[in-house]
Amino acid sequence: MERLRNMLLALSMLLKKWMLPLKSSAVLFYLLMLTLFAWLAWYTVDLTLQLADNNRQLHTLAEKQRHIRTVQVSFYQLETGVQRFILTGNATHLDAAPQQTASLYTALDEISHLSQDDHLQLQTVATIKNGVIRQLAHQQQYIQQRYKAGNSGQQIAMLPVDNTVDELLTNLLEQTRTGILAAGDRQTFYTSRLRLPLLLGGLITLLTLLANRSYRKRNRTLQDTMARREKRFRSFIEEAQVMMFIADLNGNFTYVNKKLAETSGYTREELIGRHYSIFLDADTVERLRIAYTEQYVYNKPHTNHEFLCTVKTGERKWVEQHLTLYRENGVVKGFQAIVKDIHEQKQLKLEMERLAARQKETQSRLQAILDYSTSIIFIKDLQGRYLLANKPFEEINNLEPGTAIGYTDQDLASNGATKSGNSDHVVFEKQQPLKVIETVTVNGAERHIFMSRFPLFNSDQEMFGICGIGMDITERVIYEREVIAARKMAEDAKQVQEMFMANMSHEIRTPINGIMGMAYLLDRSPVNTRQQEYLDGIKDASRNLLVIINDILDFSKMQAGKMVLEKVRINIPSLVAKEVMRLKPQADKKGVHLSYYTDERIPASLTGDAVRISQILGNLIDNAIKFTAQGSVKVTARLLETDDHNNTHVGFEVQDTGIGIPAEKQEMIFESFTQTSAENTRRYGGTGLGLAICKALVTMQGGYIAVKSTVSKGATFYVEIPFCSHADAEQEQETHAGPIPENLLLGKKLLLAEDNTLNQKVAYYLLQQAGASVDIADNGRIALQRVLETNYDCVLMDIQMPEMDGYQTTTLIRQTGSDIPIIAMTASAIAGEEEKCLKAGMNDYVSKPFTPEVLFNKILQSTGTPVTAIRPAAPVNGHTAPEGLTDLHYLHTLLKDDTIYVRELLQDFHDTLPGIIEELEQAAALEQWELIHYLVHRLKSSLSIVRIPTAMELAGTLEENALGRQHLNTLAAQVHQLTAILREACKEVAMEIENIT
């Protein structure tokens, strides 16, 4: 087979060589001949293989025949020896019995082996073997009887003759002989058939040779054509825009093209026979002579040279020469070259080299500046080896000048260098700047060094090292500690109140989010009437509590003077209608008729704060419904006047038929935490902040609010607010409040910028369930790149992210000219956070925790899509929080008992938690408060999904203390307390993962 394969390969290569210059008809002919030859070869090989297989069968049958005869002979010899022993009693007749028995069984085994492919023969052999065993057993019985009789003269019966074995052996032998004869016939048949392919092969070879002769003749004609083409090609070379020449081995020109003559200023006649040195100075001539000699001696195929040449006019030009050996009939006769004018490129290269030299000089000067700088500066590679270290660094680490370069901190430890491997590791892993305060001992005194480490990236954004810049801040550290202590003692009650309210509302939001999320999902499942009543109660209570929290937050902002009003275009009639329709289900539930009227003269587009106007109207309408048991509530908006500043004044009235307000109470109801009576507080609930907030918002917008009421007859609240006119503005598309439908976000392409894996997966799940297509960016840099590459409908932007936070990312997006809607997402409850997001260029703001309805509505409002209907959410199964540290009720509810997804999220949390624990303990050991604040903030994001209440509370305290550098003496202990809780919780999460099927 190998020989045949090589033969076919050689033939195909030969045909390929022949066919290259031939036409398609010749190619088809040779392919046909090759196909026929291949078929004949296959046919011959197939016959040869069949003949070889037949020979193997013939050999097997011959071996089987030989072993059958061995069995017959051995069996006969055994039987004869036993008969003679019985007759004579001479035991020598039994001496050969063991060898004969062994030969008999060996032959039978060989027959069995050779008959493996014939089931019937195997059965026959087995029968023979059993018969032999029986016969040998009988022989043993008679032998024993003969031994017992001895010389007593007792007559012993002769061994009975059993012909069964002989008959079976005879039949088997006959079958084998028949097989041998058949194999012989097949061998004759295969041998005769081999003659046909040999004859056909000869015929095909003859036809191929005859055809080749004809095609060779045609090939000569083709060669003549090629010669003419070569002539035209030489003409093309002659007119080419690159210089070409041929020179003999002595360097004298034998051919130059037109371009070379024109460029050099010489005629061809002047150049032919002249030496190439006419263009070169002596040094260049010698250099090229050596190069040409080496190329000739060592038979180099080609070389490249750059040099200055002088043309006839005396002008010097840089050229690049590509030189090859010129051969005739395989013998080197000279050199041929292509020469390009590279004068401009060379001049540019030389200029760049001069710039590089100047840059090197500048770098030397920079090093001198670094050495005389008061800051500590160094650069390390990814292996921690120092690439640069200035003089202050060497001095503070007690190092000799230049000894740090190429060494790591471990290498320099014996010289007293600062060990900063832990901080470097954080920068390497996170690829983010790290600022720490390190304490070193200099001349026996402790010094505090503020060290800023940051990663260095090349043009491909690949990290190649880190840079550290440090400053001795010992005096400042001492001063700051004193200032911090003094500031802590001097905090006034207003600041404490603001932080308390913000923190309280933030902590309450976490369980409320779980309650509202579960109620939202449960509302989408089929429930009976009683369950629906319970569910409505949960929803009403949670909404009321959320209103209270929002009131507290707004009040906190106002008290701190951080409430900022927007100025956007507003459609007053649409805004009034939206608020009325939003609260109409609440009125209908109580049997209160809610209606509204808007003055047609109100301009379609005014400028003001739509959110705050909606908040004012919402509060007033909600109060009217709440304090009206039966009757009606009517909302009216009228155009009043236009003042000297071109402001359009609009008056709003909310009139109800409720319980009314006593005259003596009508002034105090606008004060903080005040209601008309304690009975009303118990009966109707609330914080007493709603009207106070309304009054503050109205006042901030330059308007006023008043009330007119009679007890038991109702009340009328009147609000007047000035707006800027925009008569030529386009009327904004109205949005209609209502239930949120399934697949609400179908067709929306969203970008989720979030670095926390758990938050990513939960948000992705909820948005995808609503029909949206979602991409995820792990940090602000990736988010910016995605926005530039892809057209999204909206971006959900987390505020705190690595590499680039939400504020920076939004600013850069806006600088590109993009107006893509951006919605901020943050768990911070500090007053002014929302205003900061809007100031950065974001379109809207969602405070965590949020209900899916809130998030979906924000997305729809930002993308200009009206909300038309709401349908219940998908059902969820109830879960009871397990005993212990972890409470997974919220996670199961949020993900609608999708056990596969719940397990995946828990596994992610379980896998990442040990790393966070280790980083926290390491940061505590190094007193890296900024890093602790960053890690705890990220941890809180995960704990908002996988609830660990004790850890969440402690993490909030840690985050606040680390950010404000407060209670630093107990901060490390708090970190260890937190990590201990997390370790136990990690075990519980592992058990929960195992329990999920």
From TrEMBL:
PAC domain location, by residue?
Answer: 303-354, 430-485
Which residues, renumbered to this chain, carry the PTM 4-aspartylphosphate? D798
One Pfam family linked to the record: HisKA
Domain Response regulatory intervals = 749-863
Question: Entry's InterPro entries?
Answer: CheY-like_superfamily, HATPase_C_sf, HATPase_dom, His_kinase_dom, HisK_dim/P_dom, HisK_dim/P_sf, HPT_dom_sf, PAC
The record lists the membrane-crossing segments as 20-42
- Gene Ontology molecular function: any one: ATP binding
Write down the SUPFAM superfamilies for this protein, in alphabetical order.
ATPase domain of HSP90 chaperone/DNA topoisomerase II/histidine kinase, CheY-like, Histidine-containing phosphotransfer domain, HPT domain, Homodimeric domain of signal transducing histidine kinase, PYP-like sensor domain (PAS domain)
Q: Which residues form the Histidine kinase domain?
A: 503-725
Q: Tell me what reaction this enzyme catalyses.
A: ATP + protein L-histidine = ADP + protein N-phospho-L-histidine
Task: List the keywords (alphabetical).
Answer: Membrane, Phosphoprotein, Transmembrane, Transmembrane helix
Q: Which residues form the PAS domain?
A: 229-300, 362-406
Q: What is its EC number?
A: 2.7.13.3
The enzyme's main class, written as a single word, is transferase
The answer on whether this UniProt entry bears the keyword DNA-binding reads: no
The GO biological-process annotations, alphabetized, read as: regulation of DNA-templated transcription
Where is the signal peptide, in residue numbers? none
The protein depicted here goes by the name histidine kinase
